[in-house]
């Protein structure tokens, strides 16, 4: 590195080609291992590190306690913690006797699974093999002439909503991720702009996922009647809440209506056909066998007379 002075005395730092090359290499290593941050955070969520530290926040949690409670190999867990601490997720503390322990940080609190502002579900969703597959197809999609097909559809042969219909595990991941996003955004709207809901009687959330948005709104403004509208595989697993109705996707409802209509018209046609056949039978009998009809009516008369005679 060389320092040069300009005419007015300002310092200019000139870097050698070798230094520029070394910096490029260092950056490239960061890109090569860029995926590790997502992978290690996913690992921490799955192990439940943040959940354990949150539950035991008033205690000094040592590596030994953590690895025993989470049933982990302590040396591997230590390496994971060191990686995360370096990125501001979890913090190392020590007691006055020099014993090392671990505590939460604002970042690691976002990884508590049931936390109000948790982003754990979003990370688990985005880091799932299903969501990563389209990224592996990106260059194929861009070089393809038909680049109207989104990478997700190209990787999974159907769009993201239809895919969720056939993969219930992914459906749960997707709905939970959307819900965690909704919790964050809706609470900001409820806290900062409550006035916009004055006088609102009904809200229909079209594509409202598992209804988290509406649930938060109906809880905050109980006079609102919420109607959550989404696809059948989303609505069927959505939790119920007071003041809220869950509606299936429109075309599905329409097709149910059509089916009912077709069934009713089929039954009516069948009834009409049976009535016509009966009428034709009666007419044929009357015209072809008048004597038979006469005989049978005489028979009925005779039976009637015999009954009367017996009674008297
Ligand atoms: C990006 S998510 C948004 C979820 C929710 N609004 C939220 O913010 O958390 C889009 C939603 O639209 C739903 N969706 C997609 N196609 C739909 C359709 N044809 N009819 C109804 N809902 C649909 C999906 O199932 C999904 O829940």
From TrEMBL:
Record-annotated O-methyltransferase dimerisation domain positions: 29-113
Alphabetical list of Gene3D superfamilies matching this protein: Vaccinia Virus protein VP39, Winged helix-like DNA-binding domain superfamily/Winged helix DNA-binding domain
InterPro entries documented for this protein: COMT-like, COMT_C, COMT_dimerisation, SAM-dependent_MTases_sf, WH-like_DNA-bd_sf, WH_DNA-bd_sf
Transmembrane parts of this sequence: 261-282
Pfam family, one: Dimerisation
Annotated O-methyltransferase C-terminal domain residues: 135-241
Alphabetically ordered keywords of this record: Membrane, Methyltransferase, S-adenosyl-L-methionine, Transferase, Transmembrane, Transmembrane helix
Similarity comment: Belongs to the class I-like SAM-binding methyltransferase superfamily. Cation-independent O-methyltransferase family. COMT subfamily.
Protein name: O-methyltransferase
Organism listed in the record: Datura stramonium
């Amino acid at each position: 590195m060389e320092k040069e002075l300009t005419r007015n005395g300002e310092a200019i730092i000139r870097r050698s080609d070798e230094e520029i090359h070394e910096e490029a290499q260092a950056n490239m290593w960061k890109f090569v291992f860029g995926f590790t941050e997502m992978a290690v955070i996913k690992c921490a969520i799955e192990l439940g590190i943040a959940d354990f530290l949150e539950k035991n926040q008033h205690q000094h949690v040592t590596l030994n306690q953590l690895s025993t409670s989470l049933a982990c190999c302590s040396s591997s867990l230590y390496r994971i913690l060191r990686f995360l601490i370096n990125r501001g997720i979890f913090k190392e503390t020590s007691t006055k006797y020099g014993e090392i322990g671990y505590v939460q940080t604002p970042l690691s609190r976002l990884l508590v699974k049931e936390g109000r502002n948790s982003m754990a579900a979003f990370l688990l969703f985005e880091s799932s093999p299903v969501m990563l597959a389209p990224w592996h197809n990106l260059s194929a999609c861009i070089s393809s002439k038909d680049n109207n097909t989104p990478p997700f559809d190209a990787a999974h042969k159907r769009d993201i909503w239809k895919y969720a219909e056939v993969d219930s595990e992914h459906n749960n991941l997707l709905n939970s991720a959307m819900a965690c996003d909704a919790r964050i955004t809706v609470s900001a709207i409820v806290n900062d702009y409550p006035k916009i809901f004055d006088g609102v009687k009904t809200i229909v959330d079209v594509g409202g996922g598992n209804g988290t948005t509406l649930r938060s709104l109906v809880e905050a403004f109980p006079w609102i009647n919420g109607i959550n509208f989404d696809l059948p595989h989303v609505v069927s697993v959505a939790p119920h809440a007071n003041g809220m109705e869950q509606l299936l996707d429109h075309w599905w409802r329409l097709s149910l209506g059509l089916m009912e209509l077709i069934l009713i018209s089929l039954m009516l046609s069948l009834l009409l056909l049976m009535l016509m056949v009966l009428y034709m039978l009666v007419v044929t009998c009357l015209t072809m066998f008048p004597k038979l009809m006469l005989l049978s009516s005489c028979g009925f008369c005779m039976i009637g007379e015999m009954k009367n005679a017996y009674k008297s």
